[in-house]
Amino acid sequence: MSFVGATMRDEERYQQGMLVRRGVLGDEHVDRTLQNLTSLNEEFQDFITRFAWGDIWSRPGLERHTRSMITIAMLIALNREAELKMHLNAAFNNGVTKEELKELIMHSALYCGLPAANASMHLAQQIFAEREAAE
Fold it and tell me: Quick one: CA dihedral 35, 41, 46, 48, positive or negative?
């Protein structure tokens, strides 16, 4: 395989990733990320766009709704508040409902522990209130 072919595939993967990233996270979030590119984070953001969004989130085996639910469950388990907040907001772009998020958090209490579920429930309440206030 030539370097030109690999570069083209990387560019296609990046473009696909950007479409999915915008669809899931929203233009405002993605635009803010792009405006904040630096020499330190530029390659990392490219990596996220190509591999997380262009490869994994673009695979045909699961709908975005399901991917959102899985991602949120894993972020609860890992106690990754900033990413969890982002994906709780993004879940609505993928058709996830407040009721489904509530049930996911309740279910996570069994497998991730009460402290993780409790923190996630508080975060979800905050996000729901912010979204309702913006409507």
Answer: negative
